[in-house]
Write a structure and sequence with these properties.
With 241 residues, this protein is α/β, with parallel strands linked by helices. The chain is built from six helices and twelve strands. The N and C termini lie far apart (37 Å). Bound molecules: glutamine.
Amino acid sequence: MKLRIAHLYPDLLNLYGDIGNITTLTKRCEWRNIEVQTDSIYGNEKISFTDYDLVFLGGGSDREQLLVRDKLMSMKKELTAYVEDGGVLAAVCGGYQLLGSYYKLENETIEGLEILNIQTEIGSTRLISDVVIENEKFGTIVGFENHGGRTYINDHTPLGKVLYGNGNNGTDGFEGVMYKNVIATYLHGSLLPKNPKLSDHIIKLMLEQRGLPTDLSPLDDTIENNAHKYIVDRFLGTKKQ
Ligand code: GLN
C-alpha cells in the first residue's frame, strides 16, 4: 500500500517550515508501515489529481503568490473536480488564500481558484502571533501565523475558534476552513508536528478516499503532545488544558 502526496510549488509556497507537514504525515505513515511517496510539482507541470491521496499547498509571500497564480489557475478545473469528489487537500496561509475568490492587495487583486467561497483583503498591519484554536473534534490546535491578508469565510465551517492569536481576520474569532476534505488554515509552525490528532485525521481521510481501512495503530506521541501542551500552557495559562 502506498499513499501519494502532490506538493504543489514547494519552491515558491513553503514558508516557516511548511514542508514539515509533509515530513510529519510521511513519518506517521511509515511508523505504521504505510508507504508514502511525495511528488513535488514545479512550474507548468500537469498532473492527474486522481493519482493522489493528498494535495498540499503551503504559504508564500504576496510576490510568490503572484508567481504561482497563473500556474494554479491552469489547474483550476481539475483541482476543483478533485475537491468536489472528496479529494483531500491541505492548504496553509498563502495556499489557503488562493483557494478563495480573490486576495485583494493594495494595487492589484490576485484571483483565486474559487474552490472556497472566501475572500481575502490585505490590511494595514500584519497579523503575527502564536495561535491556539479550539476544534470540536481535535481539541486545541496550535500554530504560528504571519499574514497581511484578512480572510472572510462567509458560511463555511471554520477549522476552529481562536483562543489566542488573530485567526482569519483578527475580528470574527474564527480560524481556517473545513470544507469536504479540505483543511485550510493560517497556521504555520509547521502545523502538523505539534498537532498529532489533526495529522492522523488527514491520514485517515487519505486512506478512506483510497477505500483502505482507516484504523491507525496508536503511536507514542509523548514528545508531540508535550510540544503542543507547552504552547497551550504558555499562551492560555490555566485558562485551558
Ligand atoms: N502573503 C500572504 C499574506 O501576507 C500569505 C502569507 C503566508 O503564507 N504566511 O497574507
